[in-house]
Amino acid sequence: MTITHWKIANAQTAGRGHLKSNIPCQDYTYSMQENGLTILLLADGAGYAKHSHKGAEAVVKKTASLLADHFDEYFTAEDDDQLKRVIIRELHEEIKMIEGFEGDIKQYASTLLFIAIKGDQYVAGHIGDGLIGKEQDGELKVFSFPENGQFVNTTFFVTSEDAWKHFRLYKGLVGTAAGFVLMSDGTAESLFNKKEERLAPAITRMFEWLRDHPSQKISAVLANNLDAVIKEQTHDDCSIAIASLVTLDPEVLLAADNEYLRDFMGTHSRLPDERKPSNPELGQEIADGAPSE
Questions:
Q1: Has residue 293 been placed in a domain?
Q2: Domain that holds residue 83
Q3: Taking the C-alpha atoms of 215, 194, 141 and 67 in order, what is their torsion angle to the nearest 10 degrees?
Q4: Do residues 115 and 39 make contact, with C-beta atoms less than 8 angstroms apart?
Q5: CA atoms within 13 A on the CB side of 54
């Protein structure tokens, strides 16, 4: 008999362009586990939108709440188009409830990426650019590609007209998948080769380290690498969220140290972690291996 458990980590950092202009980070990530449900979420606020950082946070947290409350309903829903409309309507209402809302919902525009896992079932969604990747049978694969608009550097947002038409909704069985990664387009510039449609080997190492180390430590490592390495390849904000499946024999789990055991068995949510990693060599190893264009 073996014990399996999804471990989660996430991080974000403001891009060089925003730091230079004193603009807050417009990316937002969140991960949570409760009642047998594992959820990863990421949103990338539109650069043109004055309050997109607020919109990204609101959209992520509301989507997390919807998935936690309605996963079973979403998974079994037969009319996916209607489900998309319902979720988008809920997100629009949440944006309008932001303190100090100024009336123009497009000033709170963001993309949205998420995956929720319960047992062997998953529900995932994607609006806009950025991408979702997975590790399956030892290989990295793109699960959901970026969707861009008619012109370069344009995409679709939760607040776009007919947003539901650009809302890609996926449902199915996890099967042999052992890792999922969400990343914004800023991060994808370093970890995704567009020409070859290939994810960087560094992502495999992220999954491996997350399996072997506490989630809190890996979130800190991700934050440091985004800040020190990934954002140097772009002017955009950078964010990432990962889930890695751990399979252990009970004897091995019982022999683990207390920190790992609490992390493995814990129920928690994880906001972006800006702390530096306690193991700088770990951070450097994850940073290596990004593909070149």
A1: no
A2: 3-287
A3: 60
A4: yes
A5: 17
Residue 292 lies inside a defined structural domain of this protein: no
CA distances 36 to 39, 117, 121, 234, 268, Å, are 10, 8, 11, 37, 11
What's the CATH number where 221 sits?
A: 3.60.40.10
What count of Cα atoms within 13 Å lies in the side-chain half-sphere of residue 238?
Answer: 26
Number of domains making up the chain: 1
Confidence (pTM): 0.89
Q: Which amino acid is at 63?
A: T
Type of residue found at 163: A
* 98 within some domain: yes
Cα→Cα distances 287→15, 90, 119, 230, Å: 17, 37, 31, 8
pLDDT in tens, 206-253: 999 999 999 999 999 999 999 999 999 898 999 999 999 998 777 777
**Residue range 29-38, pLDDT digits in tens:** 999 999 999 9
Main-chain phi, psi angles of 265, to 5 degrees: -95, -5
